[in-house]
Amino acid sequence: MSTQPAKTLETFPNPAPHRDFQIHMEIPEFTCLCPKTGQPDFATLTLDYIADERCVELKSLKLYIWSYRNEGAFHEAVTNRILDDLVQATAPRFMRLTARFYVRGGVFTNVVAEHRKPGWQPAEKIELAEFVPQSNTRG
Q1: Cα–Cα distance for residue pair 131/128, rounded to 1 Å
Q2: Distant-in-sequence, close-in-space partners of 103: CB < 8 Å, separation ≥ 6
Q3: Is residue 54 part of a domain?
Q4: Which residues are catalytic?
Q5: Do 49 and 96 touch, CB atoms closer than 8 A?
Q6: Mean pLDDT across 51-78
Q7: What is the mean pLDDT of residues 48-69?
Q8: In-domain check, residue 139
Q9: CATH code of residue 82
Q10: Which domain holds residue 45?
Q11: Any idea what the Cα angle at residue 70 is, between residues 66 and 76, rounded to 5°?
């Protein structure tokens, strides 16, 4: 596998396709460029999804996210483009991408985009675990 930025998202078979289970990822180092000024924009991306047959492979996701570093993009557009690419690669039952952009000109921007597989009905609502940011670090 390459170690250069790439738009390719690799997948692997869902190890438990018979059940809905939540996959939660935090990506605290997303960067792209402001299309107006060329200055860098920084965001934390939070990806939550319920896989169907395929899951996204983490290294390819890192390289995919890295590929936006030198691209100009509005926050709303890049969030939806990333979600669309992830949905195309994995065809999940449900996927939500939350992009929390850091302050620019005194304004914080949060963009939330969702996908639901046609015909998929979630089970009765159950409160899922809340994840504290950076909860996987020791300290």
Answers
A1: 9
A2: none
A3: yes
A4: 34, 41
A5: yes
A6: 96
A7: 97
A8: no
A9: 3.30.1130.10
A10: 37-116
A11: 80
Evaluate if residue 85 carries a pLDDT over 70: yes
pLDDT the model gives residue 54: 98
At residue 105, the pLDDT reads: 79
Domain total in the chain = 1
Please give, one letter per residue, the 3-state secondary structure of 107-127. Answer: EEEEEEEEEECCCCCCCCCCC
Tell which wins on pLDDT, 41 or 128: 41
CA distance 83 to 103: 22
Annotated binding site: 56-58, 75-76
**Which residues on neighbouring strands pair with residue 95, listed in sequence order?**
49, 115
Asked if residue 31 is part of any domain, the answer here is no
Q: Do the domain assignments include residue 13?
A: no
DSSP state of 43: E
Question: CA–CA separation, 136 vs 125, rounded Å?
Answer: 26
Positions at the binding site for substrate: 56-58, 75-76
Per-residue pLDDT tens for 113-135? 999 999 998 878 767 777 777 66
For tokens 């921007």, what's the residue? 109
As separate numbers, helices (DSSP H) first and strands (DSSP E) second, the chain gives 2, 6
Which residue's structure tokens are 């949905």? 87
